[in-house]
Specification:
CATH topology of one domain: Arc Repressor Mutant, subunit A
Number of strands: 3
Order of helices and strands: HHEHHEEHH
Strand content: 5-15%
Structural class: alpha+beta
Distance between the termini: 17 Å
Largest sheet: 3 strands, antiparallel
Radius of gyration: 15 Å
CATH class of one domain: Mainly Alpha
Helix content: 40-55%
């Protein structure tokens, strides 16, 4: 997938602000956390994100797909199967989520395993 700037940024935008526009949406960071572990189906994401409605999850996934952060793959099977995965662009957001995990653990006393039980993988630069 081609690397493109999000629709609502201009070349004069601060890079931090441009990135914040993508990751600041409700549920976005926890979606990235879950997808960093590998492909996930809609129902798996919904179970992991207790409290998210199916409509909200659909909107967030569609938004991240439009930004080029995730990819939706449909499999020609019966019953139909759809999986979501991070794109290369999305993989480069994983260190941000990992840094937030480390900060929360060290400075905020948040010791929960976030429901995934493993540390996020690093992206090769």
């Amino acid at each position: 997938m081609a690397t493109t700037a999000p629709r609502d940024t201009s070349p004069s935008d601060c890079p931090v602000l441009a990135t914040a526009r993508i990751v600041s949406g409700k549920w976005t960071l926890v979606l990235l956390r879950d997808l960093a572990l590998g492909p996930r189906r809609f129902c798996e994401l919904q179970r992991s994100l207790a409290g998210i409605s199916p409509g909200t999850l659909s909107v967030r996934l569609r938004s991240l797909e439009e930004e080029g952060i995730i990819e939706r793959r449909e499999f020609a099977e019966m019953p139909p199967r759809v999986e979501y995965t991070l794109t290369a662009q999305g993989e480069h957001l994983v260190p941000i989520v990992d840094a937030m995990r480390a900060y929360g653990s060290q400075w905020l006393g948040a010791d929960a395993d976030c429901g995934d039980g493993v540390r996020l993988r690093a992206v090769d630069a």
